[in-house]
Amino acid sequence: MTNGVGRRSAEVAGLEADRALLGRTSTAERVADILRDRIARGCFAPGARLSEDSIGGALGVSRNTLREAFRLLTHERLLVHQLNRGVFVRIVTVQDLVDIYRVRELVECAIVRGLGDPPYDLKPVEAAVAAGESAVREGAWQELSTANIRFHQALVGLAGSPRTDDLMRGLFAELRLVFHVMDDPRRFYQPYLARNRQILEELRQGRPAAAERLLARYLEDSRRQLAGAYAEQMPEN
Question: Engineering a disulfide at 128: which of 70, 82, 150, 155 sits with its beta carbon 3.0 to 4.6 angstroms away?
Answer without folding.
Answer: 150
